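A quick aside before the break. I want you to see a complete sequence-to-structure record at least once, exactly as it would be stored in a machine-readable document. Don't worry about memorizing anything.
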Amino acid sequence: MKNKLNKGNPKGSSQKSEWLYGLHSVKAVFEMHPERVLELYVLEGRSDDRVDQILALAKVVGVHVGKASKQELEKRAGVSHHQGVIARTRLAPVRGDADLAQMLDGLSAPPFLLVLDNITDPHNLGACLRSADAAGVHGVIAPKDKSVGLTGTVKKVAVGAAETVPFYQVTNLARCLRELKNRNIWCVGTAMEEAAVGLYDVSLDGPLALIMGAEGEGLRRLTKEHCDQLVTIPMGGVVSSLNVSVATGVCLFEAVRQRRKNS
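That is the input. The structure line, written in C-alpha coordinates, reads:
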Protein backbone atom coordinates (compact mmCIF):
# COMPACT_ATOMS: atom_id res chain seq x y z
CA MET A 1 0.00 0.00 0.00
CA LYS A 2 1.08 3.57 -0.59
CA ASN A 3 0.93 5.74 2.48
CA LYS A 4 -0.37 8.94 0.90
CA LEU A 5 -3.05 9.98 -1.51
CA ASN A 6 -1.86 10.03 -5.08
CA LYS A 7 -0.63 13.48 -6.03
CA GLY A 8 -0.27 12.68 -9.69
CA ASN A 9 -2.66 11.25 -12.24
CA PRO A 10 -3.60 7.70 -11.24
CA LYS A 11 -4.94 5.22 -13.71
CA GLY A 12 -8.31 6.36 -15.01
CA SER A 13 -7.90 9.98 -13.89
CA SER A 14 -8.87 11.28 -17.33
CA GLN A 15 -12.36 9.89 -16.78
CA LYS A 16 -15.02 11.80 -14.95
CA SER A 17 -15.11 10.54 -11.40
CA GLU A 18 -16.35 11.26 -7.90
CA TRP A 19 -15.30 10.39 -4.36
CA LEU A 20 -17.59 7.96 -2.59
CA TYR A 21 -17.32 7.68 1.19
CA GLY A 22 -18.72 5.63 4.05
CA LEU A 23 -18.33 1.92 4.79
CA HIS A 24 -21.70 0.81 3.43
CA SER A 25 -21.65 2.85 0.23
CA VAL A 26 -18.05 1.93 -0.63
CA LYS A 27 -18.66 -1.76 0.02
CA ALA A 28 -21.86 -1.64 -2.06
CA VAL A 29 -20.14 -0.16 -5.12
CA PHE A 30 -17.47 -2.89 -4.94
CA GLU A 31 -20.18 -5.56 -4.73
CA MET A 32 -22.57 -4.13 -7.35
CA HIS A 33 -20.37 -2.17 -9.76
CA PRO A 34 -16.70 -3.06 -9.21
CA GLU A 35 -15.84 -1.90 -12.73
CA ARG A 36 -16.54 1.69 -11.64
CA VAL A 37 -13.99 1.75 -8.80
CA LEU A 38 -10.69 3.43 -9.71
CA GLU A 39 -8.88 3.63 -6.37
CA LEU A 40 -9.47 3.14 -2.65
CA TYR A 41 -8.03 4.85 0.41
CA VAL A 42 -8.39 3.89 4.05
CA LEU A 43 -7.46 5.67 7.24
CA GLU A 44 -3.93 5.06 8.45
CA GLY A 45 -3.90 2.60 11.32
CA ARG A 46 -7.47 1.43 10.85
CA SER A 47 -7.95 -2.33 10.82
CA ASP A 48 -11.24 -4.05 11.58
CA ASP A 49 -13.60 -6.57 10.00
CA ARG A 50 -15.59 -4.05 7.95
CA VAL A 51 -12.52 -2.43 6.46
CA ASP A 52 -10.94 -5.84 5.86
CA GLN A 53 -14.02 -6.90 3.88
CA ILE A 54 -13.64 -3.87 1.61
CA LEU A 55 -9.91 -4.47 1.22
CA ALA A 56 -10.60 -8.06 0.21
CA LEU A 57 -13.07 -6.89 -2.45
CA ALA A 58 -10.52 -4.37 -3.75
CA LYS A 59 -7.88 -7.09 -4.00
CA VAL A 60 -10.17 -9.31 -6.09
CA VAL A 61 -10.68 -6.61 -8.73
CA GLY A 62 -7.14 -5.26 -8.56
CA VAL A 63 -7.97 -1.75 -7.40
CA HIS A 64 -5.17 0.51 -6.15
CA VAL A 65 -5.30 0.76 -2.33
CA GLY A 66 -3.58 3.44 -0.28
CA LYS A 67 -3.47 4.74 3.28
CA ALA A 68 -4.10 8.37 4.23
CA SER A 69 -4.56 10.58 7.25
CA LYS A 70 -7.97 11.69 8.47
CA GLN A 71 -7.30 15.17 7.11
CA GLU A 72 -6.30 13.87 3.68
CA LEU A 73 -9.43 11.74 3.46
CA GLU A 74 -11.57 14.67 4.55
CA LYS A 75 -10.01 16.91 1.90
CA ARG A 76 -10.82 14.45 -0.88
CA ALA A 77 -14.28 13.46 0.32
CA GLY A 78 -15.25 17.02 1.22
CA VAL A 79 -16.79 15.84 4.49
CA SER A 80 -15.54 14.81 7.92
CA HIS A 81 -17.88 11.83 8.34
CA HIS A 82 -16.17 9.57 5.79
CA GLN A 83 -15.78 6.70 8.32
CA GLY A 84 -12.16 6.27 7.32
CA VAL A 85 -12.88 4.87 3.84
CA ILE A 86 -13.15 6.67 0.50
CA ALA A 87 -13.15 5.40 -3.08
CA ARG A 88 -12.76 7.26 -6.34
CA THR A 89 -15.31 5.89 -8.79
CA ARG A 90 -16.37 6.53 -12.33
CA LEU A 91 -19.57 8.52 -12.44
CA ALA A 92 -22.59 6.28 -12.77
CA PRO A 93 -24.58 6.90 -15.96
CA VAL A 94 -27.57 9.15 -15.39
CA ARG A 95 -30.79 7.25 -16.04
CA GLY A 96 -33.54 9.19 -17.79
CA ASP A 97 -36.90 8.81 -19.49
CA ALA A 98 -35.72 6.31 -22.11
CA ASP A 99 -34.07 4.13 -19.46
CA LEU A 100 -37.26 4.15 -17.41
CA ALA A 101 -39.32 3.04 -20.42
CA GLN A 102 -36.83 0.27 -21.17
CA MET A 103 -36.97 -0.97 -17.57
CA LEU A 104 -40.76 -1.02 -17.57
CA ASP A 105 -40.87 -2.85 -20.90
CA GLY A 106 -38.69 -5.59 -19.43
CA LEU A 107 -40.63 -6.19 -16.21
CA SER A 108 -42.39 -9.51 -15.75
CA ALA A 109 -44.06 -8.45 -12.47
CA PRO A 110 -46.54 -5.62 -11.82
CA PRO A 111 -44.52 -2.39 -11.65
CA PHE A 112 -43.84 -1.03 -8.17
CA LEU A 113 -42.41 2.50 -8.37
CA LEU A 114 -41.61 5.32 -5.99
CA VAL A 115 -41.91 8.87 -7.33
CA LEU A 116 -40.37 11.74 -5.37
CA ASP A 117 -41.59 15.25 -6.16
CA ASN A 118 -39.58 18.29 -5.11
CA ILE A 119 -37.25 16.46 -2.69
CA THR A 120 -34.19 18.69 -2.23
CA ASP A 121 -32.68 17.36 1.03
CA PRO A 122 -30.00 14.72 0.32
CA HIS A 123 -30.63 13.05 3.68
CA ASN A 124 -34.30 12.57 2.78
CA LEU A 125 -33.46 11.15 -0.65
CA GLY A 126 -30.91 8.78 0.84
CA ALA A 127 -33.40 7.54 3.44
CA CYS A 128 -36.10 7.12 0.77
CA LEU A 129 -33.73 5.05 -1.38
CA ARG A 130 -32.95 2.87 1.61
CA SER A 131 -36.67 2.23 2.21
CA ALA A 132 -37.23 1.65 -1.51
CA ASP A 133 -34.53 -1.02 -1.54
CA ALA A 134 -36.00 -2.73 1.53
CA ALA A 135 -39.49 -2.68 -0.01
CA GLY A 136 -38.30 -4.11 -3.33
CA VAL A 137 -39.39 -1.28 -5.62
CA HIS A 138 -38.37 -1.52 -9.27
CA GLY A 139 -37.24 2.09 -9.52
CA VAL A 140 -37.28 5.55 -7.97
CA ILE A 141 -38.28 8.50 -10.16
CA ALA A 142 -37.57 12.20 -9.59
CA PRO A 143 -37.60 15.32 -11.78
CA LYS A 144 -34.24 16.64 -12.98
CA ASP A 145 -34.98 20.18 -11.85
CA LYS A 146 -35.52 21.39 -8.28
CA SER A 147 -34.64 17.98 -6.84
CA VAL A 148 -31.45 16.56 -5.37
CA GLY A 149 -29.50 13.99 -7.36
CA LEU A 150 -27.24 11.15 -6.24
CA THR A 151 -24.71 13.14 -4.23
CA GLY A 152 -22.11 11.67 -1.92
CA THR A 153 -24.29 12.46 1.08
CA VAL A 154 -27.26 10.71 -0.55
CA LYS A 155 -25.18 7.61 -1.18
CA LYS A 156 -23.82 7.51 2.37
CA VAL A 157 -27.28 7.91 3.93
CA ALA A 158 -28.65 5.27 1.56
CA VAL A 159 -26.05 2.78 2.96
CA GLY A 160 -25.70 0.99 -0.38
CA ALA A 161 -29.22 1.39 -1.72
CA ALA A 162 -28.08 4.04 -4.22
CA GLU A 163 -26.13 1.25 -5.93
CA THR A 164 -29.00 -1.26 -5.95
CA VAL A 165 -32.15 0.78 -6.66
CA PRO A 166 -32.41 2.26 -10.18
CA PHE A 167 -32.84 6.05 -9.90
CA TYR A 168 -34.41 7.87 -12.85
CA GLN A 169 -34.31 11.64 -13.36
CA VAL A 170 -37.03 12.63 -15.81
CA THR A 171 -37.32 15.86 -17.76
CA ASN A 172 -41.02 16.49 -17.07
CA LEU A 173 -42.64 14.74 -14.12
CA ALA A 174 -46.23 15.46 -15.18
CA ARG A 175 -45.58 13.96 -18.61
CA CYS A 176 -43.88 10.98 -16.97
CA LEU A 177 -46.97 10.36 -14.83
CA ARG A 178 -49.19 10.49 -17.93
CA GLU A 179 -47.00 7.88 -19.57
CA LEU A 180 -47.17 5.68 -16.48
CA LYS A 181 -50.96 5.93 -16.52
CA ASN A 182 -50.97 4.98 -20.20
CA ARG A 183 -49.22 1.78 -19.08
CA ASN A 184 -52.10 1.16 -16.64
CA ILE A 185 -49.92 1.98 -13.64
CA TRP A 186 -52.08 3.37 -10.83
CA CYS A 187 -50.63 6.69 -9.64
CA VAL A 188 -51.29 7.25 -5.93
CA GLY A 189 -50.16 10.53 -4.40
CA THR A 190 -49.96 11.51 -0.75
CA ALA A 191 -51.58 14.72 0.45
CA MET A 192 -53.29 16.18 3.49
CA GLU A 193 -56.56 18.09 3.19
CA GLU A 194 -57.18 17.15 -0.46
CA ALA A 195 -57.09 13.42 0.19
CA ALA A 196 -60.44 11.68 0.08
CA VAL A 197 -59.30 8.33 1.44
CA GLY A 198 -56.93 6.97 4.08
CA LEU A 199 -53.83 5.02 3.11
CA TYR A 200 -55.19 1.78 4.60
CA ASP A 201 -58.46 2.05 2.67
CA VAL A 202 -57.04 2.08 -0.86
CA SER A 203 -55.80 -0.83 -2.98
CA LEU A 204 -52.03 -0.78 -3.57
CA ASP A 205 -51.48 -4.32 -4.81
CA GLY A 206 -51.48 -3.83 -8.59
CA PRO A 207 -49.20 -1.87 -10.94
CA LEU A 208 -48.38 1.09 -8.72
CA ALA A 209 -46.53 4.39 -8.65
CA LEU A 210 -46.48 5.82 -5.14
CA ILE A 211 -45.88 9.57 -5.27
CA MET A 212 -44.42 11.47 -2.31
CA GLY A 213 -43.92 15.22 -1.91
CA ALA A 214 -41.60 17.31 0.22
CA GLU A 215 -42.54 17.84 3.85
CA GLY A 216 -44.46 21.08 4.26
CA GLU A 217 -44.90 21.86 0.56
CA GLY A 218 -46.18 18.44 -0.42
CA LEU A 219 -46.92 17.59 -4.03
CA ARG A 220 -46.92 20.34 -6.62
CA ARG A 221 -50.25 21.25 -8.22
CA LEU A 222 -49.54 19.63 -11.59
CA THR A 223 -48.32 16.48 -9.88
CA LYS A 224 -51.54 16.23 -7.88
CA GLU A 225 -53.60 16.71 -11.01
CA HIS A 226 -51.91 13.70 -12.62
CA CYS A 227 -52.58 11.37 -9.69
CA ASP A 228 -55.36 8.79 -9.97
CA GLN A 229 -55.88 8.88 -6.21
CA LEU A 230 -54.78 11.05 -3.31
CA VAL A 231 -54.35 9.39 0.07
CA THR A 232 -53.46 10.49 3.56
CA ILE A 233 -51.70 8.69 6.40
CA PRO A 234 -54.02 8.54 9.43
CA MET A 235 -52.42 10.46 12.30
CA GLY A 236 -53.30 9.69 15.92
CA GLY A 237 -51.17 12.25 17.75
CA VAL A 238 -50.70 16.00 17.87
CA VAL A 239 -48.23 16.28 14.97
CA SER A 240 -49.82 17.10 11.64
CA SER A 241 -47.27 15.56 9.28
CA LEU A 242 -44.33 13.18 9.01
CA ASN A 243 -40.90 13.67 7.54
CA VAL A 244 -41.06 12.57 3.88
CA SER A 245 -38.64 9.69 4.39
CA VAL A 246 -40.70 8.36 7.32
CA ALA A 247 -43.95 8.79 5.38
CA THR A 248 -42.37 7.01 2.41
CA GLY A 249 -41.50 4.02 4.57
CA VAL A 250 -45.03 3.85 5.96
CA CYS A 251 -46.63 3.98 2.51
CA LEU A 252 -44.19 1.59 0.83
CA PHE A 253 -44.63 -1.10 3.43
CA GLU A 254 -48.42 -0.82 3.40
CA ALA A 255 -48.12 -1.54 -0.31
CA VAL A 256 -45.75 -4.44 0.45
CA ARG A 257 -48.22 -5.85 2.98
CA GLN A 258 -51.07 -5.75 0.49
CA ARG A 259 -49.03 -7.14 -2.38
CA ARG A 260 -47.80 -10.09 -0.32
CA LYS A 261 -51.27 -10.77 1.03
CA ASN A 262 -52.83 -10.82 -2.43
CA SER A 263 -50.02 -12.45 -4.39
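Two observations worth writing down. The chain has two domains: 17-90, 97-262. The two ends are 52 Å apart (CA to CA). We'll return to this after the break.
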